[in-house]
Amino acid sequence: MYGFLVQFSHNPLEFASIIRLFHRAIAQSGSALNPWAFTKSSRDPAFRLGKQLGCATDDARELVSFLRSVPSSSIIKAQDNVISAKEISFGLSFPFVPSLENDTPQAFLSESPMDLIKDGLIHEVPFISGITTHEGIIHIAKNRATFMQKVDKNFKKLVPQDLVENRCPASEGEISNKIRQFYFKDGDVSERNILQYIDEISFGLSFPFVPSLENDTPQAFLSESPMDLIKDGLIHEVPFISGITTHEGIIHIAKNRATFMQKVDKNFKKLVPQDLVENRCPASEGEISNKIRQFYFKDGDVSERNILQYIDLLTDTHYGLGVYNTVKEHAASCASPVYYYQFAFDGQFGLFKRFFGLESIKGKAC
User: Fold this and answer.
1) Which of 31, 38, 147, 327 is positioned for an S-S bond with 340, CB 3.0–4.6 A?
2) More confident residue, 302 or 147
3) Stated pTM of the model
C-alpha cells in the first residue's frame, strides 16, 4: 500500500483521479481520532527500537540504515518493548501508528486528522461510522483480578489525552474523578464490576440491528425474506462460494467458562434456532431442544468437560445451518456455479483459540 501511495503522491492530478474511485466509505469500530490510531510523533519510539536492537544513536539516517538491515522478525519481536511507561495504556497499544510528517511534497499526513476534518480537507462521500456495543471487552486482560486491581490503582491513565491537553495538570485528577464517578459511581474497579458487565452479553454474538423486512415500496431495499428471494430466483446469478470455518463457534465462548457453561445448561432452550420453532406450536420447542441436547451431549450436561460439543453446536447453529441453507437454495434456483467450502486449517496463529485460552484444543481452525 505504501509503495502504491508513493507512486502517485508526487502527482496531484493522479492522486485526484484515484480518489474519485472511492464513492462511499464505512469506518467500522475505529477512527483516526481514536487514541490508539494516531500520534503526533513516532520519532522517540523509533530510536528506542533501534537501541533495543543494538543501535544506540541519535542520527536519523544512521537509524534508518540500521533498521533496513535488521530482519523483519527481529523488529516485530522488539517493537512491543519500545513503548514507554507513559505511553502504555490499559488495552490495545501499538508502538507505531500514523503520525505527523514534515510538510513536504512527499508527506502523506502533514496535518492532524482532527484539523483535516475541521478544515474540510477530506474527500466528501456518503460516510458511515460507528461502534459496537461493549467492544471495549477486547481490552480486558485474561488475568482479570490482577488486571482490574491495576486499573483501579492507575485510573488516571484511562483519561483520554485530548481531554487534558492544553489544560493545567491539576485538571487531570478532576477529569479522572468525573469519569470514575460516571462509570463506577462510588465503587472501586474490580472483578465484581466486570462480571456485571459480562452478564449483559447474551449467548452468542448478538447485534441490536441487522437487516430486516421493509414495507413493499419503491424505496424498499428488502421487502422479502432472503430465503424467499433465493427460492424465487430473485437474485443476481454469478458464480458463488459460501462456507464455514471448522469450529468457528468458538468465538461465542465466554472467558469465564465455568459460570458461563452452567448458564448455558440452565437456559438451553435459548440455543434452539428460531426458524426451527417458527410456525410450530409452542410445546414443540421443548421437544426440539431435547433432541438437539441429545444429539450433541447425549445424556450429559453442558459443562467445561464437554466444551468441544458446545463449540460444535454453536458452529452449526450460528454459521453452518444458515450457510447450508443458502448454498442449497442457491444451487436449486441458479444456473451459475455454487461452491461450498469448509476451512479447517489449524495454524499456529489462530486468533480465537489463543484469545480464549483454548490452545490445547487441536484441530480447530479458529
Assistant:
1) 327
2) 302
3) 0.43
